Amino acid sequence: MGRLIRSALMMLLLMTVITGVAYPLVTTGLAQVLFPSQANGSLIQKDGKPIGSTLIGQAFVDPKYFWGRPSATAPQPNNGESSGGSNQGPTNPALTDAVKQRIDALRAADPGNTAPVPVDLVTASGSGLDPEISPAAAAYQVPRVARARGLSESQVQAMVAMATQGRQFGMLGEPRVNVLKLNLALDGH
């Protein structure tokens, strides 16, 4: 019996070292060598300081910036510690009210814009952290941003076009615009 216990403890120790120490060190080391940006959170630096990540949305409210998708995280928007959707279905009156309020806010920020509001500007993603919007959502905001920055709409549209990423591998997903990258490009203009 003692021999079996000793063998079991040795196996436990060996597997703990392999799966709890060696494997994480090897995978972390490989990730740092092969994919350093992604392994460190895909951070965006400005003046040597991290200001955000390409993977987590930020709440922009100034009219001179493009606005991302609404976030359903609590206690503040885009809170990575409480990622998740609102779990409100299409027949839930709370969702309907929230969407109406978001449409009203978009219309108030740009009263002359009579175009249909793209759905991704008024509904949160499943994670509540989506950093990207559709090209249609960006195009909807071009007049407001151009006016607030004193730029022509064609200049802002060109910046949106440069910031638009296509489908991954040419076939996966939909074209998208990273809001933080686009706003930083506008600030650098």
Descriptive overview:
The protein contains six helices and five strands. It starts with a helix and ends with a helix. It is mainly alpha-helical and 189 residues long. It folds into two domains: 2-36; 42-188, no CATH class. It is 48% helix and 8% strand. A three-stranded antiparallel sheet has the order 3-5-4. Strands 1-2 form a two-stranded antiparallel ribbon. The protein has helices at residues 2-34, 36-39, 93-109, 135-149, 153-163, 179-188, and strands spanning 43-46, 49-53, 132-133, 164-165, 176-178. A hairpin with a 2-residue loop joins strand 1 and strand 2.
As residue ranges, the low-confidence spans are: none
The count of helical stretches stands at 6
Provide the β-strand percentage band: 5-15%
> Percentage of helical residues?
40-55%
Task: Write the SSE topology.
Blueprint: H1 2-34, H2 36-39, E1 43-46, E2 49-53, H3 93-109, E3 132-133, H4 135-149, H5 153-163, E4 164-165, E5 176-178, H6 179-188
Antiparallel strand pairs: 1-2, 3-5, 4-5
Helix pairs in contact: 4-5, 5-6
Considering the chains and any ligands shown, give keywords for the structure.
6 helices; mainly alpha; three-stranded antiparallel β-sheet; 189 residues
Short description:
Helices cover 48% and strands 8% of the residues.
